[in-house]
Design a protein that fits this description.
single chain; alpha/beta; Alpha-Beta Plaits; Rossmann fold; 2 domains; 7-stranded mixed sheet; 4-stranded antiparallel sheet; 9 helices; 28% strand
């Protein structure tokens, strides 16, 4: 029997819809990171263009102080070409000494896999996990990581694997952290008051809007480690937090996903302001920011957040 087909202007049948989705262009983000030397970008670019890819974004960086080369490509390619693309670019990476990742936000669009990274504060991670449980955020909490063990109990409470990536002095074993993220095939890395700065190499391995950070102050006005204290010293009455995409510059201001604020009366003590921020405002900010990202309402493009008209 012939396969069922839709009328020219009618809805597609289920088989036709599946075929159409499989052949539609898929957004793919390619990152390549490694020791800096000549001739690193050419074979990757030549391969993807030879496959007929449409290049929507390309960025290349040389971090001279670390002798680090980093490249990001955002391309469009039919979905059926993704497995072969991963295999070929992996081989190119081995030949060139590059750490290559090929990722698409379309692969697990319905429930992207999250890694939730923590240090001490439990409230943001707890709020995010509750929002996922209650259906407010459509994602899979795949693993929790910490450079301290303060939030391990939350992972156990929700039945999520816990991975300790800290050193005895509280610093992070960044290579182990990347290994964990790769092992769990993470789509988005959520820094839920994770109080360590990611090195440039880690940032670029997961570049393209895959790292979401909660900063406990309003950017760009109050960056750094003590935004509550800085705002208090400026006699501010409105305080807030910022959810933003990570790029190598600490708390850069052009990658803001969401901000939430609260206002206090004059004379409120700093301790009370910090308590209100940590227990209520910061968790709400993170939940809404992650929701916007996993729902594809926003994305990072050339280091700026843009609205995604095709969200939903």
């Amino acid at each position: 029997m012939p396969r069922t087909s839709a009328a020219p202007n009618g809805p597609l049948s289920k088989p036709d819809r599946c075929d159409k989705l499989f052949t539609m262009p898929m957004q793919i983000v390619i990152t390549a990171v490694g020791p800096d030397h000549v001739g690193l970008a050419d074979p990757i670019i030549h391969h993807v263009t030879g496959e007929g890819a449409n290049i929507a974004e390309i960025q290349m960086y040389d971090h001279d102080e670390e002798q680090l080369f980093a490249m990001l490509l955002r391309i469009q390619l039919p979905a059926e070409k993704l497995p072969a693309l991963r295999q070929t670019l992996g081989k190119i990476g081995q030949l060139k000494g590059l750490s290559v990742r090929v990722w698409s936000p379309d692969e697990r669009r319905e429930r992207p896999r999250l890694a939730i990274c923590t240090t001490f504060r439990p409230e943001p991670a707890l709020a995010l996990l509750r929002a996922i449980r209650d259906g407010q955020v459509r994602a899979e909490p795949t693993v929790m990581l910490g450079n301290r063990s303060a939030c391990r109990g939350i992972a156990e409470q929700f039945g999520i694997p816990w991975e300790f990536v800290g050193k005895p002095d509280g610093a992070t074993d960044d290579d182990r952290m990347v290994d964990v993220l790769d092992h769990y095939q993470i789509d988005y890395v959520v820094l839920a008051r994770y109080m360590r700065v990611l090195p440039p190499a880690s940032c670029w391995k997961y570049a393209g809007g895959r790292i979401i950070n909660l900063h406990h102050g309003l950017l760009p006005s109050f960056p750094g480690l003590r935004p509550y204290q800085d705002a208090f010293a400026g006699r501010m009455l409105t305080y807030g937090s910022t959810c933003h995409f990570i790029v190598p510059e600490l708390d850069a201001g052009n990658q803001i996903i969401h901000q939430s604020t609260f206002t206090i009366p004059p004379g409120t003590r700093l301790e009370e302001i910090i308590r209100l921020g940590q227990e209520d405002n910061e968790p709400r900010c993170l939940v809404e920011g992650v929701r916007r990202v996993v729902n594809r309402e926003v994305q990072l493009h050339f280091h700026r957040v843009i609205a995604n008209r095709a969200a939903g």
